[in-house]
Design brief:
185 residues; alpha/beta; Rossmann fold; two-stranded parallel ribbon; 2 helices; 6 strands; elongated
């Protein structure tokens, strides 16, 4: 007598859903009266808890670097611009969950994410003297439910980064227009 064992129809969720890259190529470049643009990263690589930015589909530090690469363009004959990534971090904080009878009937928020990005843009003349400086910093907070799947969590991380970078872009653009008029074309 032969017994056939079939593979069960277990539907497992793949956490490796592809997310698009966050770029700024669809936006006009910011022409600066410099001959060279440098991008500098001052952020230490934090891969230990509570830091989780490295797990994001688009890590905040990568999104900031891309902003500098896509938006800033040298359009002058002298001087240097330096875009410095000062902060790009995502912190995960566990939240207290009710373990009582009520918890059986409710879904609570189990983690809070605080994601922060900060960068500066400096213009130096040919003698290395700083002629202009602007900075932008944005932060987003979000909590997630205790029953969130890994795919849903990654989607939340992507949405946080996307909105955070839109806010960063608007603030940096505003600051450049306000404080770097002599160097922005």
């Amino acid at each position: 007598m032969a017994v056939l064992l079939g593979a069960g129809g277990c539907a497992t969720e793949s956490p490796f859903v592809e997310f698009p890259d966050i770029t700024f190529r669809h936006m006009p470049v910011i022409n600066l009266r410099v001959v060279d643009i440098q991008i500098d990263n001052k952020v230490p690589r934090n891969v230990l808890a509570p830091h989780v930015g490295h797990k994001f589909p688009v890590p905040p530090v990568k999104a900031l670097r891309r902003w500098g690469e896509d938006r800033l363009q040298a359009a002058g004959s002298k001087g240097t611009a330096r875009f410095t990534i000062l902060e790009a971090d995502a912190i995960e904080t566990p939240l207290a969950i009710d373990q009582g009878v009520r918890a059986t009937f409710t879904k609570e928020q189990s983690e809070r994410y605080v994601v922060t990005v900060s960068a500066s843009l400096e213009i130096f003349d040919e003698n290395g003297i700083r002629r202009a400086f602007v900075k932008a910093k944005t932060e987003r907070r979000r909590t997630v439910a205790e029953d969130i799947t890994l795919t849903e969590r990654r989607k939340v991380w992507f949405e946080i980064t996307e909105k955070l970078m839109a806010e960063f872009n608007a603030e940096m653009e505003r600051n450049i227009q306000r404080y770097m008029t002599e160097f922005a074309l």
